[in-house]
Each structure stands twice: as C-alpha cells, then as structure tokens.
C-alpha cells in the first residue's frame, strides 16, 4: 500500500517536529550532560582575594568561590573542572555554554537576570567606596561628582553610575588595576564590594579607608544559563543542603572569618532570589 503525497508530507513534517523536540530537549538538559561528562565546569575570578586568586605557593587558583564550586560539584556527584574568567567575561562564558556554572562575585541585578538565571543568594555584602584617608572625603556622597574607578562590567560600576550620574566612572579589567588608578590619584575613589576592599584598607597602614555609607547592599548568587531548569533546581537544592549542613558558614569562616585579615561576618543566610525580584 502506498501513501498519498499529502500523507507522506504530513508524516514527514511530524517526524521532523518530533526530532527537533527531542534534540532541543537533549540540548537543553545541561544537567544530564554534566552527569554524563562526570565534571562540573565552574568559573571563578582569578585575581580577587579571597574569592578566587592565585596561591603564591601552589600557583593554583583558590578561594571562597572556588570552594563553593567544589562543594556544589560534590553535591551533584561529579568532579570539579575549574575555569578562570574575568569580570566582564562571566556572563558571556555562561550564555555561550562554555561553562556550566559561574561563582564569581556575581551580584544579582534585574539587567543581568534578563541574560542568565540566578540561584538563591548565598551571601549579601555592601558595595563601598575606598578613598585616600587624607583626601578630605568622609562619606560616600562626597564623591558624587568626582572620578571613581571600578571593574568593567561589575555591579560596583553599575551602582556607582546609578548613584552618581554626574561622576566620571573609569573602568578597568580587574580590581588591582582599578586600585592602582586610586593609588596614582587618577581617581578619588574606588567602588567595590566590602570583601574585596578589606585587604586594600587593612594592608595600607592607614593610607586608605572606607567612606561612610554604601552605594548598595548586594545579593550574590551563582549563575546558570537560561532555559536550564533541571540544572538550576539541582544547584539550588545543593545550596540548600550546604546551608543546612553548615558548610557554607564553614567556608565563609575559612576565607572571611575572624582568623583571616578580612574578619567579615556572614550576616545574611541563603535567600531565594525571588526575594530581590520585586
């Protein structure tokens, strides 16, 4: 029995649609790819102590974000494959599918949420301004019309532009370069998160200080590519287990606690990202 032309056409179309749906489903399930591969490709910064930086003895990239990557990978039952990224490359590397997860001082913003998915926020920190102690500035608003440096593509850059539209914002590839601009008096202030800024203040011998006040209070989370609901849920479940077991607190204490030069308390615990989306 032969099929008519129209029947063949419809069956062919149906087969094509089914094939596309199957391929799309397989392509979209990155969690399955991770399980099959046996590794989680997780990106961190490489020059931002204590989040991700090169250990001078081992020359390996270590830090809180690196350990968070490892903890999530263990929860997923796979090994960690670490990848270093710059601030401005965090989101592109994720959207292009070159990494599975980003744990790189990734502050939540509505603009970023249009490009990637955010997990629950595992910590929150204030965005501060650092200035010369003898520069004559005491509070954040003193720099409203001054020159401010920041990492290119970072939330400190975003919040500085929002808070001070009349200021001149100079951006740099990494935190050391942005700090050098302050040290060389090319800018009057440096915008960055409190954890990133503590070492510059503490190690300066009183030369630099945090200005009173803050630009914003930033929730920080892990980043997942859009349209990967299984992976997003798995990472959120992993974070929930790590929070309940006390492991996130333990990692925070290891890198930020009272026995470190940072001595920052983790005041905010794991919080659903929906709490910041209103």
TrEMBL record:
Pfam families attached to this UniProt entry: SBP_bac_3
UniProt KW Signal keyword: yes
Chain ranges of the Solute-binding protein family 3/N-terminal domain: 39-259
Record keywords, A-Z: Signal, Transport
InterPro entries: Bact_solute-bind_prot3, Solute-binding_3/MltF_N
Gene3D superfamilies: Periplasmic binding protein-like II
Signal peptide: 1-28
Family (UniProt): Belongs to the bacterial solute-binding protein 3 family.
PANTHER family per record: ABC TRANSPORTER GLUTAMINE-BINDING PROTEIN GLNH, AMINO ACID ABC TRANSPORTER PERMEASE
Name used for this protein in its record: ABC transporter substrate-binding protein
UniProt source species: Herbaspirillum lusitanum
Top-level taxonomy: Bacteria, Pseudomonadati, Pseudomonadota, Betaproteobacteria, Burkholderiales
